[in-house]
Amino acid sequence: MAPKGTGKNRTNSFMIIMTAYLMLMNAQNLRFTLFQKILAVWLFANNAAYEIFIIFAWLGLSVSYTTLLDLLRSISKSAQDTVRSKAQFRAFLLIYDNINRMIRAWDPDLGQKDVIQNGTAATFVVLEDCNVEAAFDVKALQDARSEGRRHELTAVGLFKQVDWSNLEAIFSIHCVGMLIEATESLDMHSKFVNQQLKGPLAKHRMREGRITDIHLLVMSDFNEGVTAENAKVLDDLLLCQLGLPKEEVERLLVIVGGDQSTVEKLRTLRKFLDSCPHGYSRYGWVLPLIQLWHMGWADLEHILSTHWGTSHADDLSSLGSANVLLG
Predict the structure, then answer these.
(1) Half-sphere exposure for 168 (CA within 13 Å, toward CB)
(2) Among 26, 53, 93, 277, which one is least packed by beta carbons within 10 Å?
């Protein structure tokens, strides 16, 4: 344990001096409220009671609750303006999922019980280095569907599309890289490995220094676990939060990511509204896309359900038998 007054503990002298300095600055100039605003936001994020804001405001440790609400509204407005300006270029995708919170009935009367509140949290992701008009062309997707081109995506066809010579070379150079990393005397060859991966073996490499631009959107009380509610979620995200008109939304595809349940609900929504004469209300512009994290878990589930074997674990080639042997 670190001695008091030093290290990372609650009695760190530097933190005490800094807090006192910021409080004195506020006493000298009432407009110097950065520390008080940060503390108020922290209290708000931790669901502090209203009375705590009153006491801390009297002590000069926090701004008042009303000032905090004005601050949060201004921050939200600034974030919304930023997202709306980026949405005008149409190079983005949306990712959303449901959020659930249990409201406990700690002292329930007759007929009262625990209630689960449902909502939806969404993320706005900027897509870079792409031709929006070509990549999100609604007509190209509709033509491919009408021609049944999806049936061409067979296992044999996909196998032929893979550049196996390049893939084998990548695997080989990665093995060499792991060997160099584990053997200090071979460190001189690490530069060669990096040059190979960045040069002749690189395909569709991301731009150097690229950082994904992600923005959080406002949560809503719509339950995306229900098919009809997904339409309300999309309307809220695109029309209300991003401020796009319906005519602009239906002009190009919008990639909407989520888990398997979300993708299934969106496909069902499009299926039932396909006969709608209005372009936006058909939701044909929605392109559901399962995210890699959920896809990985789904693939893992399929592998286990296929190769686990019987409950008796009598098949030595099954995963269930291997699990018994490993204890």
Answers:
(1) 3
(2) 277
Percent of the chain with pLDDT over 70: 93
Domain ranges, ordered by start, for the chain: 92-105+114-137+212-294
CB 86 within 8 A of CB 92: yes
Which whole number is the average pLDDT over 285-302? 84
The chain-wide mean pLDDT, for the chain, equals: 85
Could you give the angle at the alpha carbon of 241 between the alpha carbons of 233 and 287, nearest 5°?
50
Residue 258 has pLDDT above 70, yes or no: yes
> What is the C-alpha to C-alpha distance for residues 285 and 138, in angstroms, rounded to an integer?
6
Residue 151 is classified by DSSP as G
215 strand-pairing partners:
124
Closest CA to 248 of 5, 110, 84, 24: 84
Residue type (1 letter), 9: N
User: In the numeric block, which tokens belong to residue 19?
Assistant: 């807090």
Backbone phi, then psi, for 200, in 5-degree steps? -65, -25
CA angle 237, 241, 247 (to 5 degrees): 70
- Residue carrying structure tokens 């530069």: 191
* Amino acid letter, residue 40: A
Provide mean pLDDT across the span 12-39.
76
- The predicted-structure confidence for 38-95, as pLDDT tens digits, reads as follows 889 999 999 888 999 999 888 888 889 999 999 999 999 999 999 999 999 999 999 9
Alpha-carbon distance of 266 to 269, in angstroms, equals: 5
Q: Are 83 and 217 in contact (CB under 8 A)?
A: yes
Rounded to the nearest 10 degrees, how much is the dihedral formed by the CA atoms of 223, 78, 249, 92? -90
The pair phi, psi for residue 220, each rounded to 5°, is -125, 170
pTM of the prediction?
Answer: 0.74
Residue 310 contacts residue 272 (beta carbons within 8 Å): no
> Residue 1: its pLDDT value, please?
47
Higher pLDDT pick, 140 / 5:
140
